[in-house]
Write a structure and sequence with these properties.
The protein is of the alpha+beta class. The chain contains 19 helices and 19 strands. Strands 7-8-9-10-19-14-13-12 form an eight-stranded antiparallel β-sheet, with no helix packed on it. Strands 1-2-3-4-5 form a five-stranded antiparallel β-sheet, covered by helices on one side. Helix 4 packs parallel to helix 6 and helix 8 packs antiparallel against helix 9. The chain is elongated and about 85 Å long. The relative contact order is 0.10.
């Protein structure tokens, strides 16, 4: 039995089964889904899985190597047996589930075992719950023992799942929010202690954390990890609501995908901000070309809103539901493995909330605390204007004040390449301030020195924003509110004629600044396609500090005047004019082997890239790591200074 430090939940599973993902009241809706035209592709995939024979997986079941197809086949057959009340099939499936859980080898893949082991437990929980009337008492006890063994030997959170933080770690993924909770709901009659611990932690830690975390309806860890982890928050919401009819998280979580609409470009890809694993799959991979598909499905299930549902149906790809690889595909091919979404999950959760009419979003939208960011999207133009009020560590970046401009191609871009968390390129470039369209304010005495960062001995000083707690994980909500505050939004405007955001960035620059205000303004109707202006007003602590404005791009810029240069990419062009400071230098830093440099030292991408293999040698892995950057340096030695840079957005004629 598990001893729980949390209050015993008052919201508990009902006495009857099924109660994981569905109740008997859902049977008619699920049967209707099987007949709807909108579900024909998913239903056809489900039928194919339902009709597969387990003899094809004998080696997998015997050796215990994870194979996701076994899980989603078992899941499909279990739904079929439940809906048809087929006792003979149910008993056969229980035997398979006992073999699957009893033989699993957690050492078959150490890197992904928390995800793989958790997926097996989730599948077995479904079988346990949906086929409950056909299980003997001995089989129930054996299944519980098998699953607890898997959880205790695979989970990074530990078992019971007490480790890690719901803010920025893998605790915000499937381990607790789906896998342990499905198991806890399924076995509540026999083992209420498991539910009391898992649900107790969610109610005491996750509910208040997510109330703040999703308050702005924007993913602090970017659209890639933010979208991925949102899906498991949605899973948790759906598990509780399907079980009880009650929501545990608020509407802001359900509508987080509003911001994903603004971050989706006309070419189907996300704007790059924070760690982005999509481009590591190859330029033409299904996840790179339609990365919001799975998050939009879950948003549609929770809200019923047509803007989410139609996005999923318009960007459907069968590999989102039935992956064609069953090992480490999360890193090299798919982004939504471990059956986050499968044909069975689709049929169970589609129309969970009745469809609602379309909603029109304004061109410009401010997403407030804790994000502090304004997003603009109209036709072929997208802008990110970020102040950044809280820092969530992990896949978040030191990029307060960052902006991006897209017009028929990415022009003012994010920089660097996310491939492997914690590699040298990640902690010495991608994550850092100078890899973004931000200021660095450097103490000359510290140039060439190292700083505390994830315990790495060679983390270089870049003059960027203050590294918080050596960038270790935020342990809890109280600490985040106290110690991980960054910028403060002072004002914002969103109208047809003017989009503006102003923020106080003194806190993230407090090692070098007495005061720092950044204002970003976009006038959509000015010049050809709009004018974007950035103004920095700062007072440094020392007149000798080196103040630099960085701007990143995908192609080599061209000087067109003493204080003017152009960036061209795709069908777009950006005319950049440096209005202040009056005395400054403009330097282009980039090109081959110099794309990611600081003080003349390049920090290249990870040589051990998982996609850099013989198997993937012929794939198109074009990405947006970047050509390099333009650095504008203030040359006068004084404490007070102003940067004012004007960007005219044009077509690339």
């Amino acid at each position: 039995m598990i001893s729980s430090p949390y209050r015993i939940p008052t919201l508990v599973p009902p006495a009857e089964h099924p109660r994981v993902m569905l109740r008997r009241r859902d049977f008619d809706r699920i049967r209707t889904n099987m007949q709807l035209e909108e579900c024909r592709r998913e239903y056809a995939l489900w039928c194919k899985l339902r009709d597969m024979d387990f003899s094809a997986f004998e080696e997998v079941l015997s050796t215990g190597v994870y194979h996701s197809l076994v899980c989603i086949v078992l899941e499909a057959k279990t739904l079929d047996a439940l809906l048809r009340d087929d006792a003979d099939q149910a008993k056969e499936l229980i035997t398979v589930a006992l073999r699957l859980s009893g033989n699993y080898d957690p050492n078959s893949d150490k890197l992904m075992k928390a995800r793989f082991g958790g997926h097996i437990v989730n599948t077995c929980a479904i079988c346990y719950d949906w086929l409950y009337p056909y299980m003997t008492e001995d089989q129930k006890q054996q299944m519980i023992a098998n699953c607890e063994t898997i959880l205790s030997t695979t989970l990074e959170m530990g078992y019971p799942p007490v480790k890690q933080s719901p803010i920025g770690s893998h605790a915000a993924e499937a381990q607790l929010l789906r896998d342990c909770m499905s198991f806890a709901i399924a076995v509540y009659d026999e083992r209420p202690d498991i539910y009391n611990f898992c649900a107790g932690r969610i109610f005491e830690e996750y509910v208040p954390t997510y109330k703040l975390f999703f308050q702005s309806r924007y993913p602090l860890q970017g659209p890639a990890y933010g979208g991925y982890r949102y899906c498991f928050a949605a899973w948790c919401q759906l598990l509780f609501e399907a079980m009880s009819g009650e929501k545990v998280f608020d509407d802001n979580l359900e509508n987080m995908c509003e911001s994903l609409f603004y971050l989706l470009r006309p070419d189907g890809e996300y704007m790059r901000i924070a760690d982005d694993f999509n481009e590591s799959k190859g330029k033409n991979s299904y996840t790179n070309r339609s990365p919001a598909t799975v998050p939009m499905f879950f948003a549609g299930a929770l809200t019923g809103l047509d803007m989410y549902r139609s996005h999923y149906f318009n960007h459907f790809h069968p590999l989102f539901l039935v992956p064609d690889k069953y090992g480490r595909d999360y890193y090299t091919d798919g982004s939504f493995s471990e059956s986050m979404l499968s044909p069975t999950v689709f049929l169970v959760f589609n129309r969970f909330t009745p469809p609602q009419p379309a909603t029109t979003l304004p061109a410009a939208r401010f997403f407030g605390t804790p994000a502090g960011i304004t997003l603009y999207k109209k036709d072929d133009t997208l802008l990110i204007m970020k102040i950044g009020e809280r820092f969530s560590t992990a896949h978040d970046h030191y990029d307060c004040g960052h902006f991006e401009i897209y017009h028929k191609g990415i022009l003012a871009s994010d920089s660097g390449y996310y491939d492997w968390f914690g590699c040298e390129h990640h902690y010495n470039y991608l994550n850092r301030t100078y890899a973004h369209n931000c200021l660095t304010i450097s103490d000359p005495a510290k140039i060439g020195t190292t700083i505390p960062f994830w315990g790495r001995p060679d983390a270089v000083y870049d003059g960027g924003q203050l590294i918080l707690n050596a960038s270790w994980e935020v342990p809890d909500l109280e600490t985040m509110e106290r110690d991980y505050r960054r910028g403060v939004v002072l004002s914002h405007t969103e109208s047809e004629d003017l989009v503006e955001i102003t923020g106080d960035l003194t806190v993230p620059y407090r090692e070098t600044c007495e005061k720092y205000i950044r204002s970003m303004t976009f006038v959509p109707g000015e010049e050809q396609c709009g004018v974007f202006t950035v103004r920095d007003t700062l007072t440094t602590l020392d007149e000798n500090y080196i103040k630099q404005f960085h701007l990143h791009c995908q192609t080599e810029p061209v000087m067109t005047g003493d204080r003017q240069f152009e960036i061209r990419n795709g069908g777009g062009r950006l005319i950049c004019t440096v209005l202040e400071p009056a005395n400054c230098s403009i330097e282009f830093i980039g090109g081959k082997d110099n794309e990611f440099s600081l003080n003349g030292i390049n920090h290249p991408r990870n040589e051990k890239s998982l996609h850099n293999t013989a198997e993937n040698a012929n794939k198109n892995f074009e990405d947006e790591g970047g050509w390099g950057r333009i650095t504008i340096t203030a040359l006068d030695r004084k404490k007070e200074d102003t940067f004012l840079v004007r960007f005219v957005i044009c077509d690339n004629e």
